[in-house]
Design brief:
Length: 89
């Protein structure tokens, strides 16, 4: 598979990449263009403490399709908070 360098941002905000691929059917094959979703790592960090001595802790690293990062981080943080509350109770 050969990935081209052209990348497009879809209407939903996700990044897409165009790639050439070999489609095999029966005993033959043909080169076709495919659109692939691009994934990138997203690290979620928690900052805490007074401004002059602020500490930062990495709480999660996940692979995601670019776009809506704030919503994804909020959902992961909310989930972790829900689990912590359940464990305390």
């Amino acid at each position: 598979m050969v990935v081209t360098r052209e990348m497009n941002i879809s209407e939903a905000g996700g990044a897409l990449c165009s790639a050439e691929a070999e489609r095999v059917t029966g005993f033959g094959s043909q080169t076709v263009e495919e659109m692939l979703a691009v994934q990138e790592p997203l690290e979620i960090q928690l900052g805490y403490g007074a401004a002059q001595s602020r500490a930062v802790k990495s709480i999660s690293v996940t692979m995601r399709t670019p776009g809506n990062d704030y919503e994804l981080a909020a959902g992961i943080s909310d989930d972790r908070g829900s689990r912590a509350r359940r464990e305390r109770d």
